[in-house]
Design brief:
single chain, 2 domains, 6 strands, 282 residues, alpha/beta, Arc Repressor Mutant, subunit A, two-stranded parallel ribbon, 4-stranded mixed sheet, binds zinc ion
């Protein structure tokens, strides 16, 4: 049984879920992954002690009073994600961390990790606000994806007094920023360094073309662009028939069609695309 309640907040209604003892989830309205992985059977229980405790904590948070102890938390996820969520709880109020910084911390404690995998774990945090995934920013200062929306991330950081002047909101042009260099642009000018060798074949299938070009599973491949079809992976995977933020509104179904017809998800990307290696073929 999953117990549910709704609380009013300055950010609009918050939905909370509990197993009776601990908080399992806290979602903002319209958040991606809402109630992901919860038992289907639910019951509204606003009087549950753990909900009252969470409510008191949230009131203090939004009013910037001294925070009472955290309610017991039991987010569901892999061992790796649990490690990352624990690290997030260590980022103090009013401070920020980067994906790269968190990755280094994990490595220092003996956990092998990539910033992409960390980004996937941060993006899938089921207990918004209390587990402060909003305090993670790109190493270039970008306010990268927040499952509750970048506007809400800004709101939380502002509330905590973070200096937002050094942070910026990325435009929906990420695909261009991360595009691999076109093959013809890689040729070195005389006297220059030789071009970088092509990246090693991936191990995991691209959700669009199906070729094994992904270095990590798609759930963890933050801002990864498939070198074969140029689909930009969306870790906040909206489903096959819903527009993907990372691909400027294109759906995965449209991306697949385009790849079949053109050889890339968009015609203007064709010059950047490369043929799949034999070992990458689906
Ligand atoms: Zn692909």
């Amino acid at each position: 049984m999953t117990y549910l309640t709704k609380l009013a907040s300055p950010m609009g209604p918050l939905s909370l879920a509990s197993d009776g003892d601990s908080i399992l989830g806290l979602w903002l309205e319209g958040q991606k992954y809402f109630a992901a992985g919860l038992e289907a059977e639910t019951e509204e229980r606003p009087d549950l002690p753990v909900f009252l405790q969470a409510s008191a904590w949230l009131d203090a948070y939004f009013e910037k009073r001294n925070l009472p102890p955290l309610p017991p938390l039991a987010p569901k996820g892999s061992a790796f994600r649990q490690r990352v969520w624990k690290l997030l709880l260590e980022i103090p109020f009013g401070e920020t961390a980067t994906y790269g910084g968190l990755t280094e911390k994990l490595k220092a404690s003996g956990v092998s990790a990539s910033p992409q995998a960390v980004g996937g774990a941060v993006g899938h945090n089921p207990i918004s606000i209390i587990i402060p995934c909003h305090r993670v920013v790109g190493s270039d200062g970008s306010l990268t994806g927040y499952a509750g929306g970048v506007k809400k991330k800004r709101f939380l950081l502002e509330l905590e007094g973070v200096d937002l002047s050094r942070l910026y909101t990325p435009k929906r042009e990420t695909a261009r920023m991360f595009l691999p260099t076109a093959v013809h642009e890689r040729a070195p000018a005389p006297g220059q360094m030789p071009p970088e060798p092509p990246p090693a074949p991936g191990k995991f299938p691209c959700p669009c073309c199906g070729c094994k070009t992904f270095p990590v599973p798609k759930e963890d491949a933050l801002a990864y662009i498939c070198p074969v079809c140029l689909w930009e992976n969306d870790v906040f995977d909206p489903g096959e028939d819903q527009p993907s933020d990372e691909n400027r509104g294109m759906t995965l179904a449209e991306g697949r069609e385009a790849y079949k017809k053109l050889g890339a998800v968009r015609e203007e990307f064709l010059k950047y695309a490369r043929k799949p290696l034999p070992e990458e073929l689906p």
